[in-house]
Amino acid sequence: MNLRELLAKASPARSGDELAGLAAGSAEERVRAQMRLADRPLSVFLREPIIPYEADEVTRLICDSHDAEAFAPVAHLTVGEFRDWLLSEQATAQRLQSLAPGLIPEMAAAVSKIMRLQDLVSVAAKCRVVTRFRSTIGLPGRLSTRLQPNHPTDDLQGIAASIFDGLCYGNGDAVIGVNPVADSPARVESLLRMLDRIREHHQIPTQICVLAHVTTQMKALARGAPLDLVFQSVAGTEAANASFGVNLSVLDEAWQAARELHGGANVMYFETGQGSALSANAHHGVDQLTCEARAYGVARRYQPLLVNTVVGFIGPEYLYNGKQILRAGLEDHFCGKLLGLPMGCDICYTNHAEADQDDMDALLTMLGVAGCNYIMGVPGADDVMLHYQSTSFHDALYLRSVLGLRPAPEFEAWLERHPSLVPESWLLT
Amino acid sequence: MAIDLRMFTPARVSLGRTGHSLPTADLLRFQLDHARARDAVFQELDPAALGLPHILLRSAAGDRMTYICRPDLGRTLSEESRARLQKGSWDAAIVVADGLSAAAVQRHAASLLEQVTPRLREQGWRIAPLTVVLQGRVAIGDEIGAALGAQLVAVLIGERPGLSSPDSLGIYLTWDPHSGRTDAERNCLSNIRAEGITYSAAAERLLVLMREARARKLTGVGLKEDVPLLNSS
Questions:
Q1: Residue A23 in 3-state DSSP?
Q2: Where do the domains of chain B lie?
Q3: Yes or no, beta carbons of B13 and A357 under 8 Å apart
Q4: How far apart, in Å, are the Cα atoms of B154 and each of B72, B126, B197?
Q5: How far apart are the CA of A243 and the nearest CA of chain B, in angstroms?
Q6: B82 touches chain A (CB under 8 A)
Q7: Which ipTM did the prediction report?
Q8: pLDDT digits over A202-245, tens only?
Q9: CB contact at 8 A, A45 and A110
Q10: Scanning every residue of chain B, which has its alpha carbon at the shortest distance from the alpha carbon of A15?
Q11: Which residue, of A72, A271, A380, B105, has the fewest CB within 10 Å?
């Protein structure tokens, strides 16, 4: 069994790997694979790329950007010993931060497969990744939200109504980000202008974004649209990214344009999700958790402000039920944080998955404990454009309240200065 | 707050709260809507009730559970259905598929096509016989379009039921349909339903996209739909 097959068979059960024909055939085979994986040296992933270097630009990016010096402290460990090290007192926040550039996505994916949920939470909680644009996201004791005010016809007043509702609940400090119905430069420009007017008028210390295709955002920018963050969905193989209509050079170009605009800050926003590579028939026989970690390898190149997995959006053929979504959400958050990314999570499910609000409450609470940088804020948890359930404005208040978390400091100060817009400021503490 | 935000959006704004949580009535309303959406997923399409002359096809997914867990089968025609298609030479083929909401297709497909097909014919388009697919996914249109010999395929399909929208129709347009096309090579119109995009607006945009696709011999990210906002106030 080669490394790629071993990684797949060691993955905790999920429908997407079964669909791909990669999963272990029995519960015992899975645990035996986990035992074998635990005995493999971490360094094997550097020697044996699971997708050939020649065949895939994501592999080339991962190999070429590896920092051997940062890797040195754990270079002698096996995957199993690496888990022990991560959970030990030796793995401090500082050491984990220094280690991140020395790890490649396959190492993070491998170790996550032999970790329980509480392990994924414990280690992620030690990783701090702080990014800044107008607000500072990811500080200890803080929880931010992306305000997601989608509307089924991109109606500007309708979107504004959801924005004001969310601001009243202290949501929106990570970004105010709209998924447009129509992917056109004119539409993106109109939406950006409206978002920018609201942000400017109320002097809100946050960022705006319209989550159209990256090339559409670049066209809107060329028309003079007020662009803050550049958004793109990314995946862990060159072929899967091609199915999204992007590659590294397209992303490089957009990154360059946004940096010129904003002077080198964290200017990118990426979304990912397990199953996207298989969905595009572009997984090269690699399991979906490993493909997902490789997407973080792509994101990492661009020092993004925000990265979130849209964990339950893809549907039950990849993550069948609440249990699989819960585990995947925590795996994604762990892998991203370990690799040095400012991870958030779109805690979500679709109506054809065997999941409900109870499952989301469990993932929400565990991600809060794990120190997730941000979650989504959707009115009443119901996205009336994308047709799925995410987390609500109330959910953010719940998490902040039970865990004693606060919004980003700049946003918190703004909320305090604007009691008329936000009458229920007690909700924020 | 002086204005009622619910005037402006179907989103669940201006909900009440008790502490940081939803009041009981709002909580139960949500649970009811989720229950309805779950039920919609398992509802079956009645092709005869569409009132459209069509060739009835089935995907290789024999039932709903298989359909949900095996997207590959939902993208492929059953052997028997494949044999029912004859190759011709058409400018476009229209495929109606149940997708994840039979209710969306049942309610909107015929009314929408009334505003599309006659106008295409007036403009000289040669349209292949209509096909209706049970347990079908978007990409099954690639196989059908290729089998019919169509240059362009438009798939009308029931979208994932939303909590407030169990009956939303989507349209996916693919130039030169053949197996292996990716989503980046398609253009999509979504949210066609009573509270979303109207039939006439959807028809207008579809006709523009089809004309552009034909003129430029492509669909997907290379073909941007530049339409004004419906409401620019």
A1: coil
A2: 54-216
A3: no
A4: 20, 14, 17
A5: 5
A6: no
A7: 0.93
A8: 999 999 999 999 999 999 999 999 999 999 999 999 999 999 99
A9: yes
A10: B69
A11: A72
